[in-house]
Write a structure and sequence with these properties.
Distance between the termini: 34 Å
Strand order of the largest sheet: 5-6-1-7-8
Largest sheet: 5 strands, mixed
Number of helices: 15
Structural class: alpha+beta
Helix content: 40-55%
Length: about 400
Amino acid sequence: MWIERRERQEATILHADLDSFYASVEQRDDPSLRGRPVLVGGGVVLAASYEAKARGVRSPMPGHEARALCPDAVVVRPRFDAYMEASREVFDIFHDTTPVVEGISVDEAFLDVGGLGRISGTPHDIATTIRERVRDEVGLPITVGGARSKFLAKVASAVGKPDGLLIVAPGTELAFLHPLPVRRLWGVGPVTEAKLHDAGVETVGQLAEMGERSLSAIVGSGAGRHLFALSLAQDPRRVETGKRRSSIGSQRALGRRPKSEADLEATITAIVERLGRRLRSAERVCRTVVLRLRFDDFTRATRSRTLLESTDRTDIIMASARGLLAEAMPIIRERGCTLVGLSLTNLDDHDSIQLTLPFEADHAEELDATMDMLRDRFGRDSVTRAVLIGRHHGDDAPMLPD
């Protein structure tokens, strides 16, 4: 069956992105911080105010490097509960604007405002109202970009920062996009940007002029096809609501001090405990466990293990994660480790598990459920493993529901 997708006639896809979210919340709640360079997080910069960004500070950057660039910066501890509350208030405004909201993270979302012209005005009018409401009701600056596609709307919001509004009018997409540097394209990281630079490609327009075949010879066929389509402003994706995560993960920055194997294993244990609880709360199961590492020279590596059956049991996930860490220990000893993270992928709903006969008594699921209940009632650290006693592995950053 052939279904023709009609091209939008107006720039009715908006991308709303809170500016320096964590730092803006701190400046909102403490007037003495306004207009001053603010760093959220000491060991690793989780967020920097625009005053600090103007001095070259970026996240995630080691705290000592940030303070060297900006000696007069004010360093504050993260307050994740405050950030989550602010995020909920902003998303309430999004949902009050349109029912078609796709959250990307706690501080950004796509909104489809098509069909709201008679009720709320043009996309520019709607974006202006969103910015005014977020400023007046939540006290935070937000940038909104708009276009006929998700990709261009996100690029528009990035170009419009900070605290701006930029709508790419229909018919002007290529004139807006082609002068921009190639790093504005999704999928262009430092490595790809360097390859394109070596080929004399600096702007999106130059990339478009190369053609898909020549581009694929530089970056590969898949990436070439993807980047060439974006360079022509082709992105047919719709704003999706109710979209569930394809993975659940968490990571911990460890700093550059030497870490013992016991320290690393304790960190992995703490991460697995929290991920297992999140998995069960979302009523989901995973099939693959992925270990992510960053070394002292800032290079990265991943290791993964796929289970025979999907699970949400902490003990099974823990065994896999510890096994992956043990396999990676030789390279960690050689190159050091500044960040460790885990992702649970190949997710499915909990009711997809194939039931088996209880040939042997196994109370692991009941134990997990009891531990979750105790932590919900008495706090995260009310019941913990012996290896974690006396250790602090940081709080989880706020995130959208799993």
